[in-house]
Input
Amino acid sequence: MAKSSLDKKFDQIRKREEEKTFSTKKRSRIVSKFLNNRLAVIGLIIFTIIILASIFAPLLSPYDPMRVDLRSMRQPPSFAHWFGTDSTGRDVFTRVLFGGRVSIFIGLGSAILSAVVGIAVGCYAGYKGGWIDVIALRISEIFMSFPQIILVLLLVSITGQSLFNLMAIFILTGWGGMYRLARARMLSLREEEYVQALRSFGLSTFTICYKHMLPNALSPIMVNITLSTAMFILTEAGLSFLGLGVPLNIPTWGNILNVAQDILVLQNYWWMWGPVGIVISVFVLCVNFIGDGLRDSTDPSQQG
Amino acid sequence: MKKEILKLRDVKVHFPIQAGVFNRVVGHVLAVDGVDLDIFRGEVLGLAGESGCGKTTLGKAILRLVEPTGGEVKYISKNEEETEITSLEKKEMDPFRKKLQIVFQDPHSSLNPSFTIFGSLQDPLKKFGVKSKEERRKIIGDLLEAVNMRREYMDRYPHEFSGGQRQRIGIVRALCLEPELIVCDEAVSALDVSIQAQVLKLLMQLKKEKNLTYLFITHDLSVTEYLCDRIAVMYLGRIVELCDSEDLYQNTLHPYSEALISAIPVADLDKQTKRIVLEGDVPSPVNPPKGCPFHPRCPKAKDICKTDVPKLRKYSTNGKEHYASCHLIDLPEIT
Output
């Protein structure tokens, strides 16, 4: 009986298995799965480009983002000014580059920090349960029930406008959502038998909940981090417009976009708000793609 | 001479039922309600009963995965030191955690999907003093081979294994600290019949090699018959009959055990079996019936069963100890 091609394939696999050449592949399992996801890779590339461009802004643009040049007001895009200039003659391209620094820092930074706080509290409280859980839940509800704007107003009137106040507010109001997500996952995970097995060995609470359970709770949190990064960038834009966020002289994506509040600008000078709007959307989209890719690649039960 | 490894005295596990705005306790689920049981070194003790009768809770209470609300669990070491383990602090419990282990029912949720086999098994070893990584790999590798799996499988993820393989990995986990007693919580119920036989055979072989004691929790009496030295039958949180496994089938004393045994399917068409069909469901463990907990379903119940709770009394059948709790047994009680 002739060997079919399938049989041959299996023979090859077995041969490789016996020679133990399979094990070298293990290291890059998550990476290779991520790289197979085309959208995530495109997202990562654009994300990196935007971040690098923001970091190396002074090298990429000859202009000062703050310098007012009244002779070149409201110029449409040209070779000298790629995205044109705004109402006070500042180069929009330069401002988008420099604005990215602040906006990305606020968005990513607040999202990651609030996730860290939320996860740290949520994992422990969700696993332990009892009065710790009740107290943490109530505290998170209190923080979530405050409107962000009122909190910002309060803090700005006390300590003045600054970037770090804004971040503090974002973290204070943002950790509750992450906490609830982490807690909900832990509540269902702690009934799993592998957790009971770990408990039957008498391992410490920290090892069980942060090392063994957390990786299984991470995928929805990862997606949530990307979503809230986008949300924080947009909220920052809104608050900056009200004069409550980042001081107006510092360029951020939100501060730049806010010229579109003027109907005249909106109708006649598209380059002042168009490019920055696109950059914000593209960045947020990229972050979401990366989040999706991470979720799929870190989930070991999904093969790919 | 048989020596005990565990003595359970009046073990109770009651879960509070909370209701209302202020989480007032309005009642208790009496999952395990006063169990006395001795487990001897080197034996296989079967624990049988319907779903919801408290078998699993009792098994977990022994390991303190569920904290017992009352009673004592005493561990007797090889040189006959007795320790009451339910009142120990978390740290003090560690040496006994090593001796008592558990194999779970569901092979799909009993392994952590995010870690390789080695990754999820190495922490307990680390905790109990196996410092070097090579040594940990060797221990786990040896055990994998002991359950007829390849050494290399320790670097694979749980989703790469079949149900039977996972259950064997569950056994490896229970074995890795060289325990003395393993609670097998329906260890084969979730597997195919052919795989069941394979895993049971493996369990028996390991028992011989490593001098283990099993508490074998199951609802499948046909399995216990071949496996267990003694069988305890539970009903509604209590033990109703406890005896040698042969005696349970030949000299059944409790009407509930009779009903259970009559329900075992027999692979013989000519053989006529009398089915004792129990009516109704297991009563709620929240408010168990007064008197004998079995009386509302018992075909032989008399007036005394409705008022008095029968104690677990000692009788003798075939020259062996036989415990049962029923008012209607006419054998002489042994004191």
About this structure: Chain B has ten helices and twelve strands. The mean pLDDT of chain B is 86. The first strand of chain B starts at residue 4 and ends at 19. The CA atoms of residues 200 and 223 of chain B lie 9 Å apart.
